[in-house]
Amino acid sequence: GTSYLWSPDINISDINSQSPNVKPDEDIIYYLELRNAHDCLSKDSVKISVIQDFEVSFIPFIDSIIIGDTTRIVLEASQDNLIYSWTPTTNLSCVNCPEPDFYPLEDTRYKLTVEDSTGCFRYHYLLDIYVIEKYTLDVPDAFTPESANQNSVIYAKGYGIKKLLQFRIYNRWGEEVFYTDDINKGWDGYYKGKLQSIDNYSYFIEAEMINGEIQTKKGHIMLIR
C-alpha cells in the first residue's frame, strides 16, 4: 500500500503508519483503510482485547470457631471468570471456589490465590481461623411436636461431636420410643405411628468427641402439646 488510515484515533501512535503502536485502556476494534498506487481501496480490522486488573476483598480475614463448627467468608470480586485456589486443601468444602465452608480442627492459616483466566494478574490473600476446643453433649428440656417453631423435633446436640453413638428415649414404663445414631435425626414425638401423650420422657445419649473422648449423658425431656 501507499497510504494507510487507522480509526479511531484513540491510544494509537500514528494513524497513517503501516505498523502503529497501540495502547488501549479497554477492548477496542481498530479499522484500517489501505490504498495502493492505483488508488484501489482495501479494508481490514483488528480487535484488541485488554486484560483488566481486578480487585478482590473478603470478610472476615480472621475468624474463630468452636471445634466441629463451620465458618464461611463473603467474597466480592470486581470481575467474573477469575480462578481461585485455596491452600491447604484440607477441612474445607472446595478448593477452587470463592466462598468455601471451612471446618478446621486446629488453628489454620488458609491462603487464597486469585488470578485472571490468562494468568496476567495474580494476588494472594490470607485467612486465619482459630479453633476453640470445647466439648459438650446436651438435649433440650422440652419440645412441642407438630408445632410451627423449631422446637417441634428434639435432637442430641453439642460441641466437638465426631459421631453420635446412640440417642435413646424411654417412656415412664421403660419402653424405648426412639433410637438413632445419626446426629441429624431427632424424635418428633411419635411412636408406632401415634403421637405420644404429654409426659416426662427419659433419655440416654452417648457420643464420640473429636478428641477421641466418649461422653454420655442422661436426663428427662418434657413433651408438650
Give a written overview of the molecule:
With 225 residues, this protein is mostly beta strands. The chain has strands spanning 3-7, 28-35, 41-48, 56-59, 62-66, 71-72, 74-77, 83-87, 101-102, 108-115, 122-132, 142-143, 161-170, 176-180, 190-191, 194-195, 199-209, 214-223. The chain has a five-stranded mixed sheet with strand order 12-18-17-13-14, with no helix packed on it. A four-stranded mixed sheet has the order 5-11-10-8, with no helix packed on it. It has a three-stranded antiparallel sheet with strand order 1-2-3, with no helix packed on it. The protein starts with a strand and ends with a strand. The mean pLDDT is 94.
The helix/strand series, from N terminus to C terminus, equals: EEEEEEEEEEEEEEEEEE
Sketch the major β-sheet: 5 strands, mixed
Q: What number is the mean pLDDT?
A: 94
Number of strands: 18
Give the structural class. Answer: mainly beta
Helical content class: under 10%
Unreliable stretches (pLDDT < 50, length at least 5) are: none
First-residue to last-residue Cα separation: 93 Å
* Number of distinct helices: 0
Range of strand content: over 45%
Shape: elongated
Spell out the blueprint of helices and strands.
Layout: E1 3-7, E2 28-35, E3 41-48, E4 56-59, E5 62-66, E6 71-72, E7 74-77, E8 83-87, E9 101-102, E10 108-115, E11 122-132, E12 142-143, E13 161-170, E14 176-180, E15 190-191, E16 194-195, E17 199-209, E18 214-223
Parallel strand pairs: 5-11, 12-18
Antiparallel strand pairs: 1-2, 2-3, 4-7, 6-9, 8-10, 10-11, 13-14, 13-17, 15-16, 17-18
